[in-house]
């Protein structure tokens, strides 16, 4: 795999060319910034920015103004995220965001693998079965795993997935691993039309079931679906916990990404520390 070429393709298709979907509006501003707004309270933020040292500060200020006004009119959540990749310009973009009042979250690694080079055999521990998520009951099971694996974000995850299932079910492949009647692992995949990348999100296992190969099985399950649907690559923003597993399966690091989060101050805030109530909760993971 030509990493430079695939990274350029990823930027073009999944960032600069990101498309609207259920509950999602995409806007391009004059600074070359591409932002996504969750119209139902879902994830909102900057996905792409074609900036340089001369335009970065003005572009950052423009996004803060935009999301502040949108939050105060109810058109956007009171928190938004700027996804900064290590290959983005200018090189000090993260420092500029810090100076503007953003807070960094843990760094993740952008990993990509050719779909047809990944294992597709789904091996599960005895007593564990897979349940595809196609209805509200399945979404509730996914949300239960998400809470135990990641600790937060259940309400927004539930809202986003139900909206996606209702409006565009073909763009989502989600699954829960069940040990009897207990959900122990869950994961989903976005299948965006017109792109060559299927995105892996939300893969998590409850603590007592980790280390038994279930997470790996859910990667194989999704890789098989992506291959059947004609996607060339799987993409994931991997945490430090999942990255070693993915690398052993053949995923290659193309960049790192750090979410920088800005919380819109309440209108009556008297100090920089005063913050408005959270409008959503939890980014895509």
UniProtKB/TrEMBL annotation:
Domain (N-acetyltransferase) ranges: 128-267
PROSITE patterns on file: GNAT
InterPro entries named among the record's database cross-references: Acyl_CoA_acyltransferase (IPR016181), GNAT_dom (IPR000182)
One of the record's GO molecular function terms: acyltransferase activity, transferring groups other than amino-acyl groups
Sorted UniProt keywords: Transferase
Gene3D superfamilies linked to this entry: 3.40.630.30
Key word Cytoplasm present: no
Name of the featured protein: N-acetyltransferase
């Amino acid at each position: 795999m030509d990493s430079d070429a695939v990274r350029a393709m990823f930027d073009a298709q999944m960032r600069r060319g990101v498309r609207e979907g259920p509950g999602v509006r995409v806007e391009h501003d004059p600074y070359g910034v591409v932002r996504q707004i969750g119209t139902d309270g879902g994830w909102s933020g900057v996905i792409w920015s074609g900036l340089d040292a001369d335009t970065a500060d003005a572009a950052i200020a423009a996004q803060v103004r935009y999301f502040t006004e949108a939050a105060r009119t109810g058109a956007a959540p009171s928190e938004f995220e700027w996804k900064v990749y290590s290959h983005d310009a200018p090189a000090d973009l993260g420092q500029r965001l810090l100076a503007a009042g953003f807070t960094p979250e843990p760094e993740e690694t952008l990993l990509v693998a050719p779909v047809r080079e990944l294992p597709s055999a789904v091996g599960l521990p005895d007593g564990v079965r897979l349940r595809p998520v196609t209805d509200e009951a399945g979404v509730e099971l996914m949300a239960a795993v998400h809470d135990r694996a990641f600790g937060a974000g259940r309400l927004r995850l539930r809202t986003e997935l139900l909206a996606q299932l209702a409006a565009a079910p073909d763009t989502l492949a989600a699954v829960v691993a069940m040990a009897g009647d207990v959900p122990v692992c869950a994961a989903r995949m976005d299948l965006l039309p017109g792109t060559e990348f299927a995105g892996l999100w939300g893969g998590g296992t409850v603590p007592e079931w980790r280390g038994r190969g279930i997470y790996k099985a859910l990667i194989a399950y999704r890789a098989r679906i992506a291959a059947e649907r004609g996607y060339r690559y799987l993409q994931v923003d991997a945490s430090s916990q999942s990255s070693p597993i993915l690398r052993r399966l053949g995923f290659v690091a193309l960049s790192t990404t750090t979410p920088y989060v800005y919380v819109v101050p309440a209108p009556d805030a008297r100090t920089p520390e005063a913050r408005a109530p959270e409008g959503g909760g939890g980014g895509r993971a």
